[in-house]
From TrEMBL:
UniProt entry tagged with the keyword Protease: yes
Organism name: Photobacterium arenosum
Any Pfam family the entry gives: Peptidase_S24
Protein name as catalogued: Transcriptional regulator
Keywords: DNA-binding, Hydrolase, Protease, Transcription, Transcription regulation
Peptidase S24/S26A/S26B/S26C domain boundaries: 74-196
Bacteriophage CI repressor N-terminal domain residues: 8-48
CDD domains assigned: S24_LexA-like (cd06529)
UniProt cross-references to InterPro entries, sorted A to Z: Lambda_DNA-bd_dom_sf, LexA-like, LexA/Signal_pep-like_sf, Pept_S26A_signal_pept_1_Ser-AS, Peptidase_S24_S26A/B/C, Phage_CI_N
Keyword Hydrolase: yes
Gene3D superfamilies: lambda repressor-like DNA-binding domains, Umud Fragment, subunit A
Length: 202
């Protein structure tokens, strides 16, 4: 039978951690809990199950009633646009599924999170804030959208206009501009989704 120190060493190996404080963080317990395991010389079996799951998958399934949303490190520009280099998913953020469906009003399976870069949408969206984007493939009505135009990824307020779409920033320092009907129909323009929620530091 393994000693308590050997069991903790096994947990660290499974979770790829070296210190007790890092192990505690990965397992979702306090460092004092690990100390109590050593005192009692016993570690709950579910802790080993969680550690093995982390070892196999690198992630832990969210609790019942919660959903893990994809988080993209690509920065949607709220300034003049930023060239999209990569859209690889890097990590997940967990939300209440009921909150997304009832309060935000969208399907959890259809949304993802990404950060905003720039100040053109200030004060509605601050630089560095997270936005929840409901994936759609076309403009559905006035609102804030994430879209691509000429290789740039942007987050702006889109509105119908006589000539096509009006692109507006909430920051008065940025001038509105137009997307013609031909530009909207071209391969240079693509709606990624509509911003339905934002989270930012006060």
């Amino acid at each position: 039978m393994q000693s308590i120190d050997e069991q903790i060493a096994e947990l660290k190996k499974l979770t790829n951690t070296a210190k007790n404080v890092d192990l505690a963080k990965v397992l979702g317990v306090s460092p004092k809990t690990i100390q109590s395991w050593k005192t009692r010389e016993k570690i709950p079996e579910d802790i080993f199950l969680k550690a093995r799951q982390i070892s196999q998958n690198g992630v832990i399934a969210p609790p019942k009633g919660y959903v893990s949303l994809d988080f993209y490190e690509v920065e949607a520009s709220a300034g003049h646009g930023a060239l999209v280099v990569s859209e690889e998913k890097s990590s997940d953020i967990v939300f209440s599924e009921t909150y997304i469906q009832n309060e935000v009003g969208v399907k959890a399976a259809n949304v993802f999170l990404m950060p905003v870069k720039g100040d053109s949408m200030y004060p509605t969206l601050k630089n560095g804030c997270l936005v929840m984007v409901n994936q759609i493939d076309h403009f559905t009505g006035d609102g804030i959208y994430v879209f691509r135009f000429e290789g740039q990824l942007m987050v702006k307020r889109l509105q119908f206009s006589k000539h096509g779409l009006s692109v507006t920033s909430d920051n008065d320092n940025y001038q509105p501009w137009e997307l013609s009907k031909d530009e909207i129909m071209s391969s240079d323009f693509e709606v990624i989704g509509e911003v339905v929620w934002s989270g930012q530091r006060m």
